[in-house]
Amino acid sequence: MPSRLTALDASFLFLDRETTPMHAGGLAIFTPPEGGLDLDQLIRLVRQRLPFVPRYRQRVRNIPFGVARPVWVDDEDFDITYHVRRSALPKPGTREQLDELVARIISRRLDRDRPLWELYLIEGLQDGQVAIVSKTHEALVDGVSAVDIAQVLLDETPEVPASPGDTWQARREPSGVELLTEAVAEIAARPGAAIDALRQAGSDATSIAQRVGGKVGSALSTVAAVARPTPASPLNVEIGAQRRFASIDMPLADVKQV
Prior knowledge:
By secondary structure, the chain is of the alpha+beta class. It contains ten helices and seven strands. The strands form two sheets. The chain has a four-stranded mixed sheet, sandwiched between helices. Strands 1-4-3 form a three-stranded antiparallel sheet, with no helix packed on it. The longest helix has 14 residues, at 176-189. Mean pLDDT is 84; it is low at 204-209.
């Protein structure tokens, strides 16, 4: 039986629009080992670590007529080369050029017909460095309780831990009739729970904001405040789909002191 999205995760999907993409992004810059790091090596590493994050080979499937929250189903056509990609800057790529490229990558929404994540290997940086940019939808990993692909790619020591055996086989995707029948059976067995789920998913933005913290909460607070009049300000303008990305260097000791 497919796993149904929680009310919180479903709300991230409902809020996802061209101007409000609900994915989180990350940038990591590395000095590659001797011999370098190329796309094939990164793909092999990701493939080895996917058993730690099984949701990364599943996609969202909506229920006919929207009678229940969507479910996670195995992507029978999962293609890791779609999700792990390569890009490059003209050598020697500066930090400003990297920030501009990251902004373009982050601005694009994720494909809802595939597992909701992407990973980019960025080559051509100055000093021979490489960067990895990750994009993960908040419905897939809310940053509080779930594990992100970037977390399982990095090891604490140079010794690579043994990878669990990968015996994954995509389960057959249920038909629309099967999903609808299962949803109706759930509603019949627990009508109160169905009402609570709809109430949670559609109306309680304040509660969601409290659960996920400031980063996502600020976006949801904006949604909750749409109906309220806003003061005139140069900042109160229509939001577009493009984003800017900026980065700074800060000693870890300073962060700890703060």
